[in-house]
Amino acid sequence: MTQDETPLPGTDAHTREVRARQASRARVMALLLGAFVILVFAIAIAKMTGGAAH
């Protein structure tokens, strides 16, 4: 999309474009949060089972 093709704010095309970017960011944040939760869970399990080196 060139500068001339940029949708004007308030139009349906602009709203769809903004929503698509928001959905993309939300998906990335969900994946990162899920990975963090799995990492914390794995660390907690390793500590409980004595897998951590002393």
Keywords:
1 helix; transmembrane helix; membrane; mainly alpha; Protoheme IX farnesyltransferase; transmembrane
Describe this structure in words.
With 54 residues, the protein is an all-alpha fold. It is built from 1 helix and no strands. It is rod-shaped, with a radius of gyration of 21 Å. The N and C termini lie far apart (57 Å). The chain crosses the membrane at residues 28-46. Keywords: Membrane, Transmembrane, Transmembrane helix. This is Protoheme IX farnesyltransferase.
Low-confidence stretches: none
Oligomer: single chain
Give the H and E element order: H
**Sheet/helix structural class:** mainly alpha
Count of distinct strands: 0
Rounded to an integer in angstroms, the radius of gyration calculated over CA atoms is 21 Å
Q: How much helix is in the residues? A: 55-70%
Strand content: under 5%
Mean pLDDT: 86
Overall geometry: rod-shaped
Distance between the termini: 57 Å
- Biggest sheet: strands, sense, closure? none
Count of DSSP H/I helices: 1
Protein name: Protoheme IX farnesyltransferase
Transmembrane segments: 28-46
Keywords: Membrane, Transmembrane, Transmembrane helix
